[in-house]
Amino acid sequence: MKAAVIRNAIMHNLGLKIGSLAAAVIMFSWVRGAEDAQRTLFVEVLAILPPDSTGKMLVTELPDKLRLTVTGARSQLNAVREEDMRVQIDLRDTSRRYYYFSERELNIPAGVTVTQIAPASIPLRWVDRAERRLPVVPRLTGELPPGLALEQPLRVEPDSVLVRGSKDEVDRLRTAETLAINLSELGPGMHEQRVPLIRPTARTQYVGEVPIDVRLEVTVDIAEKSLRGLSVTVEGREARSVRPTSVALNLRGAPSSIDVLDTDSIVPFVTVPEGATERNLTLPVQLRGVPRGVEVAGIEPEEVQVVVAAPAAR
Question: Which of 63, 86, 171, 206 is surrounded by the fewest CB atoms within 10 Å?
Fold first, then answer.
Protein backbone atom coordinates (compact mmCIF):
# COMPACT_ATOMS: atom_id res chain seq x y z
CA MET A 1 0.00 0.00 0.00
CA LYS A 2 2.77 2.41 0.99
CA ALA A 3 4.77 1.57 -2.22
CA ALA A 4 1.78 2.41 -4.37
CA VAL A 5 1.43 5.77 -2.70
CA ILE A 6 5.14 6.59 -3.31
CA ARG A 7 4.94 5.49 -6.93
CA ASN A 8 1.86 7.64 -7.54
CA ALA A 9 3.57 10.61 -5.95
CA ILE A 10 6.59 10.22 -8.25
CA MET A 11 4.63 9.68 -11.42
CA HIS A 12 2.15 12.50 -10.80
CA ASN A 13 2.95 15.34 -13.25
CA LEU A 14 6.27 13.62 -14.23
CA GLY A 15 6.73 15.67 -17.41
CA LEU A 16 6.33 18.91 -15.53
CA LYS A 17 8.85 17.81 -12.92
CA ILE A 18 11.47 16.86 -15.59
CA GLY A 19 10.97 20.17 -17.39
CA SER A 20 11.44 22.09 -14.15
CA LEU A 21 14.69 20.21 -13.39
CA ALA A 22 16.06 20.91 -16.87
CA ALA A 23 15.22 24.60 -16.55
CA ALA A 24 16.99 24.74 -13.19
CA VAL A 25 20.16 23.16 -14.65
CA ILE A 26 20.16 25.60 -17.59
CA MET A 27 19.63 28.57 -15.29
CA PHE A 28 22.49 27.43 -13.02
CA SER A 29 24.86 27.01 -15.97
CA TRP A 30 23.97 30.45 -17.33
CA VAL A 31 24.47 32.14 -14.00
CA ARG A 32 27.71 30.22 -13.44
CA GLY A 33 29.05 31.15 -16.89
CA ALA A 34 28.20 34.80 -16.38
CA GLU A 35 30.17 35.00 -13.14
CA ASP A 36 33.50 36.88 -13.25
CA ALA A 37 36.59 34.69 -12.98
CA GLN A 38 40.38 35.02 -13.21
CA ARG A 39 42.86 33.07 -15.34
CA THR A 40 46.60 33.06 -16.04
CA LEU A 41 47.76 32.86 -19.65
CA PHE A 42 51.22 32.42 -21.16
CA VAL A 43 51.63 34.18 -24.51
CA GLU A 44 54.54 33.57 -26.93
CA VAL A 45 56.80 36.57 -27.68
CA LEU A 46 58.14 37.15 -31.21
CA ALA A 47 60.73 39.87 -31.82
CA ILE A 48 61.60 41.80 -35.00
CA LEU A 49 65.31 42.67 -34.69
CA PRO A 50 67.23 45.36 -36.60
CA PRO A 51 69.06 44.39 -39.82
CA ASP A 52 72.84 43.89 -39.83
CA SER A 53 73.23 47.14 -41.76
CA THR A 54 72.50 49.14 -38.57
CA GLY A 55 75.78 47.94 -37.05
CA LYS A 56 74.01 47.28 -33.74
CA MET A 57 72.93 44.14 -31.95
CA LEU A 58 70.68 43.54 -28.95
CA VAL A 59 72.34 41.79 -26.01
CA THR A 60 69.30 41.83 -23.73
CA GLU A 61 67.86 38.36 -23.15
CA LEU A 62 64.25 38.52 -24.31
CA PRO A 63 61.53 36.48 -22.58
CA ASP A 64 60.10 33.56 -24.54
CA LYS A 65 56.62 34.18 -23.10
CA LEU A 66 54.59 36.79 -21.24
CA ARG A 67 52.51 35.85 -18.22
CA LEU A 68 49.10 37.49 -18.37
CA THR A 69 46.52 37.67 -15.60
CA VAL A 70 43.08 38.21 -17.12
CA THR A 71 39.54 38.50 -15.75
CA GLY A 72 36.12 38.17 -17.38
CA ALA A 73 33.14 35.94 -17.64
CA ARG A 74 34.03 32.34 -16.98
CA SER A 75 32.60 31.23 -20.31
CA GLN A 76 34.71 33.81 -22.16
CA LEU A 77 37.90 32.88 -20.31
CA ASN A 78 37.36 29.19 -21.01
CA ALA A 79 37.08 29.98 -24.72
CA VAL A 80 40.54 31.67 -24.85
CA ARG A 81 43.23 29.40 -26.40
CA GLU A 82 46.82 30.17 -25.41
CA GLU A 83 48.24 28.51 -28.52
CA ASP A 84 46.35 30.98 -30.71
CA MET A 85 47.81 34.01 -28.94
CA ARG A 86 51.20 35.66 -29.49
CA VAL A 87 52.67 39.13 -29.24
CA GLN A 88 55.07 40.56 -31.82
CA ILE A 89 57.41 43.32 -30.66
CA ASP A 90 59.22 45.64 -33.07
CA LEU A 91 62.81 46.27 -31.91
CA ARG A 92 64.21 47.76 -35.11
CA ASP A 93 64.71 51.15 -33.47
CA THR A 94 68.18 50.84 -31.91
CA SER A 95 67.82 54.11 -30.03
CA ARG A 96 65.10 52.62 -27.88
CA ARG A 97 66.13 51.87 -24.28
CA TYR A 98 62.95 50.19 -22.97
CA TYR A 99 60.08 48.29 -24.46
CA TYR A 100 56.72 48.51 -22.65
CA PHE A 101 54.08 45.89 -23.30
CA SER A 102 50.57 47.14 -23.99
CA GLU A 103 47.20 45.40 -23.84
CA ARG A 104 46.58 46.66 -27.39
CA GLU A 105 49.30 44.30 -28.69
CA LEU A 106 47.79 41.18 -27.12
CA ASN A 107 44.70 40.53 -29.26
CA ILE A 108 42.56 39.88 -26.19
CA PRO A 109 38.89 38.95 -26.91
CA ALA A 110 36.21 41.50 -26.09
CA GLY A 111 34.90 41.20 -22.55
CA VAL A 112 38.25 39.94 -21.21
CA THR A 113 40.38 42.38 -19.20
CA VAL A 114 44.14 42.15 -18.66
CA THR A 115 44.94 42.97 -15.03
CA GLN A 116 48.67 42.16 -15.08
CA ILE A 117 51.50 41.66 -17.62
CA ALA A 118 54.75 40.09 -16.46
CA PRO A 119 57.22 41.35 -17.34
CA ALA A 120 55.59 44.70 -17.97
CA SER A 121 58.68 46.06 -19.75
CA ILE A 122 62.11 45.03 -21.00
CA PRO A 123 65.30 47.12 -20.68
CA LEU A 124 67.11 47.17 -24.03
CA ARG A 125 70.90 47.16 -24.27
CA TRP A 126 72.54 47.68 -27.64
CA VAL A 127 76.21 47.13 -28.57
CA ASP A 128 78.22 47.57 -31.74
CA ARG A 129 78.22 44.62 -34.11
CA ALA A 130 81.46 43.36 -35.70
CA GLU A 131 82.79 40.42 -37.67
CA ARG A 132 86.19 39.09 -38.70
CA ARG A 133 87.87 35.92 -39.87
CA LEU A 134 89.65 33.63 -37.39
CA PRO A 135 92.09 30.76 -38.04
CA VAL A 136 90.79 27.32 -37.03
CA VAL A 137 92.91 25.53 -34.43
CA PRO A 138 92.13 21.88 -33.59
CA ARG A 139 92.17 21.22 -29.85
CA LEU A 140 94.33 18.18 -29.01
CA THR A 141 94.20 16.22 -25.77
CA GLY A 142 96.02 13.15 -24.49
CA GLU A 143 99.36 11.84 -25.74
CA LEU A 144 100.30 9.54 -28.58
CA PRO A 145 101.47 6.06 -27.61
CA PRO A 146 105.26 5.79 -27.12
CA GLY A 147 107.27 5.67 -30.34
CA LEU A 148 104.74 7.68 -32.38
CA ALA A 149 104.89 11.29 -33.56
CA LEU A 150 102.33 13.70 -35.03
CA GLU A 151 103.34 15.28 -38.31
CA GLN A 152 103.03 19.05 -38.43
CA PRO A 153 101.31 21.13 -39.59
CA LEU A 154 97.87 19.54 -39.32
CA ARG A 155 95.60 19.73 -42.37
CA VAL A 156 92.41 21.64 -41.54
CA GLU A 157 89.48 22.35 -43.88
CA PRO A 158 88.25 25.06 -43.77
CA ASP A 159 91.28 26.63 -42.14
CA SER A 160 89.40 29.81 -41.15
CA VAL A 161 85.85 30.88 -40.28
CA LEU A 162 83.93 34.14 -40.00
CA VAL A 163 82.81 35.12 -36.50
CA ARG A 164 80.12 37.73 -35.87
CA GLY A 165 78.74 39.31 -32.74
CA SER A 166 79.39 41.91 -30.07
CA LYS A 167 82.38 44.01 -31.14
CA ASP A 168 84.13 43.93 -27.78
CA GLU A 169 83.98 40.12 -27.68
CA VAL A 170 84.89 39.67 -31.35
CA ASP A 171 87.97 41.85 -30.84
CA ARG A 172 89.18 39.60 -28.00
CA LEU A 173 89.03 36.40 -30.05
CA ARG A 174 92.24 35.09 -31.65
CA THR A 175 91.36 31.59 -32.88
CA ALA A 176 88.37 29.35 -33.56
CA GLU A 177 88.82 26.16 -31.52
CA THR A 178 87.32 22.75 -32.25
CA LEU A 179 86.12 20.14 -29.81
CA ALA A 180 88.93 17.97 -28.44
CA ILE A 181 90.64 15.24 -30.47
CA ASN A 182 92.09 12.48 -28.26
CA LEU A 183 95.60 11.58 -29.47
CA SER A 184 95.86 8.55 -27.17
CA GLU A 185 93.37 6.69 -29.41
CA LEU A 186 95.43 7.12 -32.61
CA GLY A 187 97.86 4.65 -34.16
CA PRO A 188 100.29 5.01 -37.09
CA GLY A 189 98.78 6.21 -40.36
CA MET A 190 96.44 8.92 -41.67
CA HIS A 191 93.39 9.83 -39.59
CA GLU A 192 90.49 12.01 -40.69
CA GLN A 193 88.06 13.41 -38.13
CA ARG A 194 85.08 15.76 -38.49
CA VAL A 195 84.71 17.90 -35.37
CA PRO A 196 82.42 20.85 -34.58
CA LEU A 197 83.62 24.23 -33.44
CA ILE A 198 83.19 25.36 -29.85
CA ARG A 199 80.96 28.43 -29.64
CA PRO A 200 83.40 31.19 -28.69
CA THR A 201 81.30 33.40 -26.36
CA ALA A 202 77.66 33.98 -25.47
CA ARG A 203 77.39 37.06 -27.71
CA THR A 204 79.21 35.76 -30.77
CA GLN A 205 78.61 33.03 -33.29
CA TYR A 206 80.24 31.59 -36.41
CA VAL A 207 78.66 32.52 -39.74
CA GLY A 208 77.61 29.50 -41.78
CA GLU A 209 79.00 27.20 -39.11
CA VAL A 210 79.98 23.78 -40.46
CA PRO A 211 81.98 20.89 -38.96
CA ILE A 212 85.74 21.09 -39.46
CA ASP A 213 87.61 18.31 -41.26
CA VAL A 214 90.95 17.60 -39.59
CA ARG A 215 93.56 15.24 -41.06
CA LEU A 216 96.25 13.94 -38.72
CA GLU A 217 99.24 11.90 -39.88
CA VAL A 218 100.82 9.76 -37.18
CA THR A 219 104.27 8.36 -37.93
CA VAL A 220 106.71 6.15 -36.09
CA ASP A 221 108.95 8.48 -34.10
CA ILE A 222 112.59 7.87 -35.09
CA ALA A 223 115.67 9.31 -33.42
CA GLU A 224 119.24 9.01 -34.69
CA LYS A 225 122.60 8.97 -32.98
CA SER A 226 126.11 9.03 -34.46
CA LEU A 227 129.09 7.36 -32.77
CA ARG A 228 132.60 8.07 -33.97
CA GLY A 229 136.04 6.73 -33.15
CA LEU A 230 134.97 3.20 -32.17
CA SER A 231 138.04 0.96 -32.23
CA VAL A 232 137.84 -2.18 -34.37
CA THR A 233 138.68 -5.48 -32.65
CA VAL A 234 140.21 -8.37 -34.66
CA GLU A 235 139.11 -11.87 -33.72
CA GLY A 236 140.38 -15.28 -34.88
CA ARG A 237 144.03 -14.35 -35.50
CA GLU A 238 146.58 -11.97 -34.15
CA ALA A 239 146.59 -8.75 -36.18
CA ARG A 240 149.75 -6.81 -36.99
CA SER A 241 147.78 -3.78 -38.24
CA VAL A 242 144.25 -2.55 -38.96
CA ARG A 243 143.47 0.27 -41.39
CA PRO A 244 141.54 2.26 -40.35
CA THR A 245 141.68 1.44 -36.69
CA SER A 246 138.24 2.89 -35.92
CA VAL A 247 134.84 3.31 -37.54
CA ALA A 248 131.83 5.60 -37.26
CA LEU A 249 128.27 4.34 -36.70
CA ASN A 250 124.88 5.86 -37.44
CA LEU A 251 122.17 4.32 -35.23
CA ARG A 252 118.38 4.78 -35.54
CA GLY A 253 115.45 3.84 -33.31
CA ALA A 254 112.69 5.02 -31.00
CA PRO A 255 113.73 8.02 -28.88
CA SER A 256 113.15 6.00 -25.71
CA SER A 257 115.71 3.43 -26.92
CA ILE A 258 118.23 5.93 -28.31
CA ASP A 259 118.17 8.11 -25.18
CA VAL A 260 119.25 5.23 -22.89
CA LEU A 261 121.75 3.72 -25.30
CA ASP A 262 124.93 2.41 -23.63
CA THR A 263 127.55 3.27 -26.24
CA ASP A 264 130.31 1.43 -24.36
CA SER A 265 128.54 -1.88 -24.96
CA ILE A 266 128.69 -1.53 -28.78
CA VAL A 267 131.84 -3.17 -30.16
CA PRO A 268 132.87 -3.14 -33.86
CA PHE A 269 134.88 -6.24 -34.80
CA VAL A 270 136.17 -8.29 -37.74
CA THR A 271 136.70 -12.04 -37.82
CA VAL A 272 139.66 -13.61 -39.62
CA PRO A 273 138.39 -16.77 -41.35
CA GLU A 274 139.79 -20.01 -40.02
CA GLY A 275 142.55 -21.33 -42.28
CA ALA A 276 143.15 -18.00 -44.03
CA THR A 277 146.50 -18.10 -45.88
CA GLU A 278 146.67 -14.50 -47.00
CA ARG A 279 148.25 -12.03 -44.68
CA ASN A 280 146.52 -8.94 -46.14
CA LEU A 281 142.75 -9.27 -45.74
CA THR A 282 139.77 -7.03 -46.45
CA LEU A 283 137.16 -7.88 -43.85
CA PRO A 284 133.59 -6.57 -43.24
CA VAL A 285 132.98 -4.76 -39.97
CA GLN A 286 130.45 -6.41 -37.67
CA LEU A 287 128.84 -5.11 -34.48
CA ARG A 288 128.20 -6.58 -31.08
CA GLY A 289 126.07 -5.10 -28.32
CA VAL A 290 123.45 -3.24 -30.43
CA PRO A 291 120.25 -3.43 -28.32
CA ARG A 292 116.90 -4.62 -29.64
CA GLY A 293 114.87 -1.84 -31.20
CA VAL A 294 117.95 0.00 -32.46
CA GLU A 295 118.82 -0.18 -36.15
CA VAL A 296 122.27 0.28 -37.64
CA ALA A 297 121.68 2.82 -40.39
CA GLY A 298 125.31 2.94 -41.51
CA ILE A 299 128.92 1.94 -40.80
CA GLU A 300 131.79 4.03 -42.15
CA PRO A 301 133.84 2.37 -43.48
CA GLU A 302 132.04 -0.95 -43.92
CA GLU A 303 135.33 -2.82 -44.43
CA VAL A 304 138.85 -2.53 -43.02
CA GLN A 305 142.23 -3.77 -44.14
CA VAL A 306 143.81 -6.23 -41.72
CA VAL A 307 147.39 -7.54 -41.80
CA VAL A 308 147.54 -10.72 -39.78
CA ALA A 309 150.52 -12.59 -38.42
CA ALA A 310 151.63 -15.78 -40.10
CA PRO A 311 150.16 -18.90 -38.54
CA ALA A 312 152.39 -20.51 -35.96
CA ALA A 313 154.53 -23.42 -37.23
CA ARG A 314 153.55 -26.87 -36.06
Answer: 171
Structure confidence by residue, pLDDT tens digits, 13-45: 556 656 555 544 444 444 444 457 899 999 999
CATH number of 35-124: 2.170.120.30
* Cβ 119 vs Cβ 151: under 8 Å: no
Range 93-119 average pLDDT: 88
Helix (H), strand (E), coil (C) string for the chain: CHHHHHHHHHHCCHHHHHHHHHHHHHHHHHHHHHCEEEEEEEEEEEEECCCHHHCEEECCCCCCEEEEEEEEEHHHHHHCCHHHCEEEEECCCCCCCEEECCHHHCCCCCCCEEEEEECCEEECCEEEEEEEEEEEEEEEECCCCCCEEECCCCEEECCEEEEEEEHHHHHHCCCEEEEEEEHHHCCCEEEEEEECECCCCCCEEECCCCCEEEEEEEEECCEEEEEEEEECEEECCCEEEEECCEEEEEEEECHHHHHCCCHHHCEEEEECCCCCCCCEEEEECEEECCCCCEEEEEEECCEEEEEECCCCCC
* Domain covering 128-220, topology: RNA Polymerase Alpha Subunit; Chain A, domain 2 (2.170.120)
Q: Note the pLDDT of residue 263.
A: 87
Residue 301, pLDDT above cutoff 80: yes
- The CATH architecture that domain 223-308 belongs to is Beta Complex (2.170)
Q: What pLDDT digit, counting tens, does each position of 216-246 carry?
A: 999 888 889 999 999 999 998 888 899 999 9
When pLDDT is averaged across residues 124-144 and rounded to a whole number, the result is 94
